[in-house]
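Our consortium's second objective concerns turning raw sequence data into structural hypotheses that experimental partners can test. To show how far this objective has progressed, the report includes one record in full. It was chosen at random from the queue rather than selected for favorable results. The single chain below, 401 residues long, was entered without modification.
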Amino acid sequence: MGAAGVALDAPTAAPDAPTAPEVVPEVVCEATVNSIRVQWKVQLDPRVHAVPVKAELTPCPVPQGSERMMPASGPEGAISGTCDFHFLYAGQDHTFRLFVGEGEPGTFSFEGARPTLELRIRTAACGKAVEPRIARMLPADMWPTYVGPEHELGEWLGLCPEDMVWTFSPSFDVLRSLWLNACFTLPSRHSPIAQCPNPIRRYCLDLTKRQPWLRNKKVRRHKSDFRLTVNANFRATFQQCERTHREAGRGSWITPDLIEGLDRCRKEDGELKVYSIELWEKSTGQLAAAIMALSVGDIFHDYTTATMLRDGRSPGAILTKVVGHLLTEAGYTLWYWGFKNPYMGEYDGQYGGLELRNDLDFWPRWRQAREMSCLPGNVDLAKRVPPGGGASHGGLDLAVI
């Protein structure tokens, strides 16, 4: 990150203003094109063990950052903290203020208090990954939602004021970080800019409701016609999804680089699990439907689906119901679908469909899932289905479920 910041002498408080303990601040400040991080440390009087602290940044278009804190002093009688602010405008001057007071949080008022620390900080003119000549062509209101290699992605993405963030010619490391932080990527063959869905309201299925997945009429009537596999041929299945979308006139964001990146994550088999789920018609050997997905901990996210065989049996719907059953059996608790589309309304009732607020509801669940993904015995759909196979062998014959 680039750094910019100048500490100003804190003026002496007026006699009637709330008093603060005598302090000596230390500070490190970093700024990107749309974010500011301030790491601070304040040495307290040895007799003081905890104080109320407030931090603020102005201007700050999205309410965020530290409100009131009550940090306890360390062994050397110092308190410290890190304040992050995101979704700022490029090349804009900001003022950071840190207030350190006395007394309990409920009794001390910061109104009228003088800042212990005051910094002037300017955000960078453009993103680290964006060439200056291209950056000059981009409108100013794009920069607050840019993400790039200079960012440490995390739960702050849940505070985004828009449904999309974007990145520029992302490297594999940036792509993987986005996927691990609940932002899928929609690249374009004709532009270096990739849009990344980050919905303010995310449509999910609560898999703890023990939905009656296999009691669906078409599942019961036609399941014996099909066999299901997981990662039978990831690349070929993904490419078939791309062709199906294109032939239907919907265009496609599925690019060779995207396939390569997700397949690399699949082979790494680490914190991020990646899957192709294939439904095969046994009598013809034809690929009838597919779901492309990833998972982190106990949250499953499908990023595209395709139905190649369209007939009265509704293979795509059968695949959705069977996958819901398998996810529940495997130990997943949430199935994230993305933006809510009208057809999803049928899943609102008995199938546990609901919209989660990105900041208050979804991201706390995602954080827990990431913590779970690093533990032994992490949830993994591939362990629920026999490996390999196709229409005639391997995988799972739906006649037996």
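The partners drew two points from this record. The radius of gyration is 26 Å. DSSP finds seven helices and 19 strands in the chain. Both points have been shared with the crystallography group to help prioritize constructs.
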